[in-house]
Design brief:
single chain, Jelly Rolls, mainly beta, signal, 1 helix, 6-stranded antiparallel β-sheet, 2 domains, 370 residues, cell wall, 42% strand, Allergen Act d like, globular, Pectin_Meth_Modulator, secreted
Length: 370
C-alpha cells in the first residue's frame, strides 16, 4: 500500500510538471495558502518559500482582509488574504507554457502608504533587453481602491519565470503596494474577421478579466509594455486604457470593449494596409459604461489625414451611438486612432477617472463612393 501511494504521488507530481498553464489564476494566485506561524514575524514573512508556489525576496507581509494600517482599513478583493511588497520586494513563480505563444498576465494591486508606488513585471528567459513593464500606480482608476493590470509577453521557452517586483525604497520598509489575484491567459495571434480590415475590432480578444471584480483591467501604454495584451492594437498614450466586460459594464457589442479613461493621454491605435487613393469607411460605436461616468464626452477618431470628433452626452447609465468616418487613403498603410477629448470623473465622489467606451470598430473599402 505504501509503495502504491508513493508511486501515485510521484505520477501526480510528474503529471503536474508536464502540463502547460491554463487560463485563470496561477497556482495559489490569490495567496489563500499562506505561511505557517513559524514562518512569520508579526505580519512579515521570514521564509522565502513560505507561500506555496511562490519564491519570495525582500520585505513581504501577509495581509488579512480587514487588517488596519493606521487609520486605513485594508480590503482584499479575492478571498481573505493578499501580500504587501515592501522595499525591493519581489515574488516569482515558474510556469510551464507553450514556447512561441503569446501570454498576458493580469493581477490586482492597491496603493498603501508610499507616494509613488509602481510595480515592475518581467519574465525570464527573455532576449529582449527592454521587455519589462514598469507600471505606475500614482493614479487609481477604480472607486474601490484596487485596480487590475495586464502585461503581455512572448514565451521564449517551455518554462518561464514570471516576476512582480516593487522597486521602491521608502523610509518605512513595509510601505508598498498590496498584491492579489495573479492570473494568466494564452492569446492566439489576432486575425481579421470577414467584413473588417482591422484585427480584433470588437475587442473580444484581450487579457484575462477576473470574474469577481467590477473594475475592469488596465492595459498599459507601449511605454510600459512592448507587447500589448489587447491583440491587434497599440496603446499610444501616456496612460492606460481600460478593458471592460459586459458582466459589470454596459458594452455596445459582444462581451468586451475599451473605456478611454484619461482624456487625450489615453489612446488606442492600429496600422492597417490600405490602397493609396482608395476611399474607406471607418465605423465604430461609442457610449458610456454605465459606471456613473456622466457629462459631455467626445471621441476623436483619426484615419489618414482626416479627423472626426463625435460628441456624446452621458447620463452614466449606459447607452451608445454609432459613428462613421469616410476618408481617402494617402499611403499603403493607414493608422487608425481613437482618443477622448476630455477628462471625466465618476459621479460618486471618488475622484476616479472614466471616459467614453469604444467598441465594434470596422474598416471597409467603399466600392462606389459617389
Amino acid at each position: 500500500m505504501l509503495k502504491f501511494t508513493a508511486l501515485f504521488v510521484l505520477l501526480c507530481a510528474h503529471f503536474h510538471v508536464g502540463l502547460s498553464i491554463t487560463d485563470g489564476l496561477l497556482p495559489n494566485g490569490n495567496f489563500e495558502q499562506g505561511p505557517k506561524p513559524s514562518q512569520m514575524k508579526g505580519t512579515r514573512v521570514t521564509d522565502p518559500t513560505a507561500i506555496p508556489n511562490w519564491q519570495l525576496s525582500g520585505v513581504i507581509e501577509y495581509i488579512k482582509s480587514g487588517q488596519k494600517q493606521g487609520d486605513m482599513l485594508l480590503i482584499v478583493p479575492e478571498g481573505q488574504f493578499a501580500i504587501r511588497l515592501g522595499n525591493e520586494a519581489s515574488i516569482r513563480q515558474k510556469l510551464k507554457v507553450t514556447k512561441g505563444m503569446f501570454y498576458s498576465v493580469t493581477f490586482s494591486a492597491a496603493r498603501t502608504c508610499a507616494q509613488e508606488e509602481r510595480l515592475n513585471v518581467s519574465v525570464r528567459p527573455n532576449t529582449e533587453a527592454k521587455d519589462w513593464g514598469m507600471l505606475p500606480m500614482q493614479t487609481m482608476y477604480s472607486s474601490d481602491g484596487w485596480d487590475s493590470y495586464a502585461w503581455g509577453f512572448l514565451a521564449e521557452a517551455s518554462e518561464v519565470e514570471v516576476s512582480i517586483h516593487n522597486p521602491g525604497v521608502e523610509e518605512d520598509a513595509a510601505c508598498g503596494p498590496l498584491l492579489d489575484s495573479v492570473a494568466i491567459k494564452a492569446l492566439p495571434p489576432p486575425r481579421r474577421m470577414r467584413g473588417n480590415m482591422l484585427k480584433n475590432g470588437n475587442f473580444e480578444h484581450g487579457p484575462y478579466v477576473f470574474p469577481n471584480t467590477s473594475w475592469g483591467v488596465l492595459v498599459p501604454s507601449n511605454i510600459e509594455d512592448d507587447h500589448c495584451p489587447l491583440l491587434g492594437w497599440m496603446v499610444e498614450s501616456l496612460k492606460a486604457v481600460k478593458y471592460i466586460d459586459s458582466d459589470h459594464f454596459s458594452v455596445p457589442e459582444g462581451k468586451r470593449a475599451i473605456e478611454l479613461i484619461a482624456g487625450k493621454e489615453s489612446a488606442i491605435a492600429q496600422v492597417v494596409k490600405t490602397t493609396k487613393g482608395k476611399v474607406y469607411d471607418l465605423t465604430f460605436s461609442l457610449g458610456d459604461a454605465s459606471n456613473l461616468c456622466e457629462g459631455s464626452m467626445e471621441v476623436e477618431a483619426f484615419a489618414g489625414k482626416v479627423t472626426l470628433r463625435v460628441p456624446y452626452e452621458s447620463k452614466g447609465k449606459g447607452g451608445f451611438k454609432q459613428a462613421r468616418l469616410r476618408f481617402v487613403a494617402v499611403s499603403d498603410r493607414t493608422r487608425v486612432r481613437f482618443l477622448s477629448s476630455f477628462y471625466t470623473m465618476k459621479n460618486d465622489n471618488s475622484g476616479s477617472l472614466c471616459g467614453p467606451v469604444i467598441d465594434d470598430v470596422k474598416l471597409l473599402g467603399v466600392r462606389n463612393p459617389n
